[in-house]
TrEMBL record:
Gene: Pstpip2
Cell division recorded as keyword: no
Protein name, entry field: Pstpip2 protein
Species: Fopius arisanus
Gene Ontology MF annotations: zinc ion binding
Subcellular location as annotated: Cell membrane; Cytoplasm
UniProt-annotated stretches for the region Disordered: 69-90
Compositionally biased intervals (Polar residues): 69-86
PANTHER family cross-referenced by the UniProt entry: STAC, STAC-LIKE, ISOFORM J
């Protein structure tokens, strides 16, 4: 069964279209939501053709292009987790700004501890040739190093302390372990270096994201200030020249002030939506992705440290039965260390300090007039809403097309960045499997930069999409009180009711021979709606009729 809606009804149905912030893949569970979204997009294209065409809207630039800088291909900050593993990230909710320093300190302690374990293995191998007294001194020295770390970093530190106790017990009997320990030290240090570089990039990128958000907030404040100034100027002009019926310089000044007021309003609304979309994408996508990368770094560092400690304990286990019993227990403890458990414990401790909240969303705030102004003067200036309004200048379609082209360019750029990042990640993984840690470190900087560039590109795309939605959801008709100071009662109220009655009276009662009762109902509805659409086209002076959307009802 097909039901055909008139254009006016479609404008009401799709007044608030579905928002889409990115082009991520949708799971099969959300297949029905995808179909609904596609239908909304198709209908929205038909609605845009029926909207008023003499509209001007200014686009407020949210991002400044980087001068003299070649565009880089990079995807959003990604980690190596699959979609199923993203939900197991214990740090995904720790997006509050006050927790950044705690996370940075925890990550730095993990890096420092891996380096300490590596140095310990090297010096322990050398110290195996020295008397037991020197061995005890060495153990005490490294115990004091780990004691300088503020806070507990979980199982890594516990297994480290256990190792110190075992080495202190067997200090006099490990002379043959010197060569083995030296062979374990250097790979541990080399394997931790790329993670150290990646850690620095992650926290530097978060600061860069915060700067982008801060600049957007500043632009929003500036747009709000300009909006207030334009409102005050227009209000003053309306007070000085309350009537616009005559001709003269007063009318020109009123028109100029009016245009400036509407343009500043549009700029403020555009910037408001861009800021909200940027903050929302940053809090929902960028920050959890960065936290997931921090989790990956900690897991790999924990594995590196535990593998080194396991190697030391296994080598010591070969020397004597007594040593074997102690170091077997240490080996099992090292294998039992769970980075996820450590991170979950850290998340519980930090969650008590600050509770994560949803990204802040700025609301539209219209300027308020002065208290001493009379009510009729205040009513002479229309109260605008959180939407794009016509300005009487060139059509808004140019701005919408520019936003659409920019969104398409950003989408292509994001795709290229993702492909480039995937290729670099595969090369880095193969290099790590071949123990080419120098090459892994070289690739890590490029991968981190690509991830950051992809994150910035997605932030831009989120802002552009939010601005595009304003042209689809706003009413582009004339403003009451500006273009039409006196509304006509002929286009509102009961006129719609009379049009429907007239349409049903004009229906043809005859139908082709052999037509079923269901087909008659379809033809009746079709003729009724077609008549109303023709009357509306004639009423509003639409020269070319755009076919309305046909919605299939199973």
């Amino acid at each position: 069964m097909y039901v055909i809606y008139p254009a006016e009804e479609l404008l009401k149905i799709y007044e608030n279209p579905i928002r889409s912030l990115n082009n991520t893949q949708i799971n099969s569970i959300n297949h029905e939501a995808t179909i609904s979204k596609d239908l909304n997009i198709v209908c929205q294209k038909n609605i845009n053709k029926v909207r008023a065409r003499s509209v001007k809207s200014w686009r407020y630039l949210v991002f400044e292009s980087r001068a003299n800088e070649n565009p880089r291909s990079n995807p959003i900050m990604q980690n190596n987790r699959s979609n199923g593993e993203e939900g197991t990230n214990p740090l995904k909710e720790l997006t509050h700004a006050t927790l950044n320093e705690s996370l940075k300190q925890h990550n730095g302690n993990a890096l420092k501890l891996v380096q300490t374990v590596s140095e310990f293995a090297q010096e322990l191998g050398t110290a195996m040739d020295i008397h037991g007294a020197n061995m005890r001194r060495l153990v005490d020295e490294f115990r004091s190093r780990s004691g300088d770390m503020r806070g507990d970093i979980g199982g890594m530190k516990r297994i480290w302390e256990n190792l110190l106790r075992q080495v202190e017990t067997d200090a006099s009997s490990h002379l043959d372990l010197a060569t083995t320990l030296k062979q374990l030290s250097r790979p541990t240090l080399e394997a931790s270096f790329p993670k150290k570089l990646q850690s620095r990039k992650v926290f530097a990128h978060r600061e860069a994201y915060d700067q982008v958000v801060s600049k957007t907030e500043e632009k929003l404040k500036k747009a709000r200030l300009n909006y207030k100034r334009a409102y005050d100027g227009f209000l003053k002009c309306s007070i000085d020249s309350p009537s616009v019926s005559g001709a003269g310089s007063g009318d020109d000044e009123w028109s100029t002030q009016r245009r400036g007021y509407l343009e500043s309003h549009n700029a403020y609304v555009l910037q408001l939506h861009a800021t909200n979309a940027l903050n929302e994408y940053y809090q929902i996508h960028c920050l959890p992705s960065l936290l997931g990368e921090i989790s990956d770094i900690y897991e790999e560092l924990s594995n590196i440290a535990c593998n080194c400690i396991t190697g030391i304990s296994e080598a010591s286990n070969e020397r004597a039965a007594e040593q074997s019993r102690r170091y077997q227990a240490l080996t099992k403890e090292a294998h039992a260390i769970s980075p996820q458990s450590d991170l979950q414990s850290l998340a519980r401790n930090l969650s008590s300090i600050a509770v994560s909240k949803k990204p802040p969303r700025r609301l539209f705030v219209a300027p308020a007039p002065a208290d001493q102004l009379p009510t009729d003067r205040i009513n002479s200036v229309p109260i605008l809403k959180d939407e794009i309004v016509p300005t009487g200048a060139p059509p808004a379609q140019d701005t919408f097309e520019e936003l659409r082209r920019e969104a398409d360019d950003l989408t292509l750029k994001i795709g290229r960045l993702r492909d480039s990042l995937d290729a670099s990640t595969r090369i880095q993984r193969k290099s790590a499997e071949g123990s080419l840690f120098t090459k892994v470190a070289e690739l890590q900087e490029d991968i981190s930069m690509k991830r950051f560039d992809l994150g910035v590109a997605n932030l831009h795309l989120a802002a552009v999409q939010a601005q595009k939605e304003l042209f689809g959801a706003s009413d582009m008709g004339p403003l009451d009180g500006i273009n039409n100071r006196k509304m006509s009662n002929g286009s509102t109220g009961s006129n719609t009711k009379h049009k429907w009655l007239k349409a049903f009276k004009s229906l043809k009662t005859s139908s082709p021979t052999g037509t079923s009762a269901g087909d008659k109902g379809k033809q009746t509805m079709y003729h009724a709606v077609s008549t109303v659409v023709a009357m509306s086209r004639k009423k509003f002076g639409i020269r070319r009729w755009t076919p309305v959307a046909r919605i299939h009802i199973p």
